[in-house]
Each structure stands twice: as C-alpha cells, then as structure tokens.
User: Which sequence fits this backbone?
C-alpha cells in the first residue's frame, strides 16, 4: 500500500451518456455515482475518457430516470434502494461488457467500486472519496453533520431524501465558492435513497452488512483511493482508515490526496485535475 499527495487545483441503462457499451473497442470504463448526484454528472469524464481511447459508460442507479429533471419529479422511484441493489445493478453492467472494465466510483459509488473489485469484477478500481465500508471506525463530526439530512430521521430509511442548497454547500461545495456550489446544486442534484447511509452507519454493528467489502482479496485488480483533504462528507481520515483495511492484501492499493478539495471534486471546476491523475495512474497500471 502506498500513499501520495497532490496540490490544489478542479441513466439507468448500461449505455448511459457514453453510447452502447463496447462500441469503440477500447478498454471499458464504468462510472458509478453516489448519493444526490445524477449519472449525467459524469458527462465531462465520459467525454475525456472517450477521447483518450477508452469506452466509457455511466449507468444510473436502479430506477433512476434518464434526466435530472425526471429524477426530481419522481423522488420516490428510488426510495428503498440499498447497497446490494446498486452493486447487483452495476455488476450486471460490468458482466455484459466484452472485457473487464475499469470501475470508477464517487462517494457511495466508490464503496460499490470496492465491493465489485473485492468480488473479482473489473480490471481495476478507482474509489473517489468512497463511503465508509465496514471496519472503518473514524466518524468525524463533519461527516455526521453531512449525513444528518437523511440520518436525522429514522423514518427516512425507506424514503428518498433531497438536499437543500445549504446542505449541499456543507456536504459537497464547501471547498468552492458559494456561487459555484449553487451552480453545481442546480445542475446535478437529485433525490436519493437514504437506505445506503443507514446501512453504512450501522455496518460495524451488523454481522452481514451490505457495506462489507472483501479487502483481503489478493487476486483482484489494482485499486486507487482518492481523497479530498477538505471533504466534509467523507473526511480524509476516513479514506486513510479505508486504506488500512487493505493491509492484508498483496494486491496494489494506493491513496492519492488532493489538497483544498471537497466532496464536489468530481464535478466542480477542478474535476480535470482529478481525472488526469486517474488517467495517469491507469497508465502506470498498464491500463
């Protein structure tokens, strides 16, 4: 396991915004979003990776409508969706591809990436600000506050929850200007199921938690963990603790940290710095 640092800076179907899977003949890449963002938020990454010769897809979560507007109009469509539901949904996309893909996930999408890689799926994984997996113990106050919109009411477990602009500013946009945070909120946020947050919060008290990952698998592909040092939703201490969970595996597991970056690092004006770092790492892995 190794750790590095970087300076400060930026649809439901399997095709997603990237077109039919396997169309270009390049290495497939599957982008998996997390809570409160729509699959189309990966659009710039999809375009960049396609330009670099990859064949990217960005599937939505189960029952996620094709557009942000449709998702906002039908919030209960995703209510009750849990971690295994998303894992199985993305696994079906992965299994349908002609060659093992690189899986890139953000937040809960990062947790899904870790689960799939632990299951032996995919050629490699990149987990960006990944949600807390079972075994990770740190629970900073900022993370608790960021999760309160869902976790604050036990009745939310079976519901879909939306963030206010103020809540998004704290959980995602704290490292960008207030104006940019509002623009990101207006462009990409959607209601999301609260169930995965409850599952992750209770993971260390559950014998068979859906947030459990096979971190000991030595036969899996390489994994890159990415952390924004100003992240409130998944603070850096959580990602560093996640790295330690892989200490029993001999498979490549690395950490790259970005100074001055928050949870919005995949969608804000500095996204390209993160994407280029991922591309460089994939090149180093021969992918």
Assistant:
């Amino acid at each position: 396991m190794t750790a590095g640092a970087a300076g400060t800076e930026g649809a439901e179907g399997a095709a997603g915004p990237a077109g039919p899977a396997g169309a270009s003949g390049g290495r497939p890449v599957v982008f998996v979003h997390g809570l409160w963002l729509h699959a189309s938020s990966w659009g710039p990454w999809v375009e960049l990776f396609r330009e670099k010769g990859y064949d990217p897809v960005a599937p939505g979560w189960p029952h996620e409508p094709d557009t942000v507007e449709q998702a906002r109009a039908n919030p209960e469509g995703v209510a009750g969706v849990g971690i295994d539901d998303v894992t199985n949904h993305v696994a079906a996309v992965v299994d349908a591809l002609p060659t093992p893909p690189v899986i890139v996930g953000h937040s809960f999408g990062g947790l899904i990436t870790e689960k799939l890689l632990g299951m032996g799926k995919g050629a490699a994984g990149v987990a960006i600000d990944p949600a807390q997996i079972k075994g990770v113990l740190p629970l900073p106050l900022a993370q608790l506050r960021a999760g309160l919109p869902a976790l604050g009411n036990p009745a939310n477990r079976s519901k879909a929850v939306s963030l206010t602009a103020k809540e998004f500013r704290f959980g995602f946009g704290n490292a960008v200007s207030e104006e940019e945070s509002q623009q990101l909120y207006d462009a990409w946020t959607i209601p999301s199921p609260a169930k995965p947050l409850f599952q992750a919060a209770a993971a260390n008290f559950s014998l068979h938690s859906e947030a459990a990952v096979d971190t000991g698998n030595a036969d899996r592909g390489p994994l890159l963990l990415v952390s924004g040092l100003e992240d409130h939703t998944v603070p850096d201490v959580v990602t560093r603790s996640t790295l330690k969970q892989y200490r029993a595996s001999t498979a490549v597991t690395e950490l790259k940290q970005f100074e001055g970056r928050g949870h919005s690092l995949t969608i804000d004006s500095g996204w390209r710095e993160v994407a280029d770092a991922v591309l460089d790492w994939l090149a180093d892995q021969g992918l």
About this structure: The domain at 2-284 is CATH 3.40.50.1820 (Rossmann fold). Confidence is low (pLDDT under 50) at residues 2-22. The longest strand covers residues 223-228.
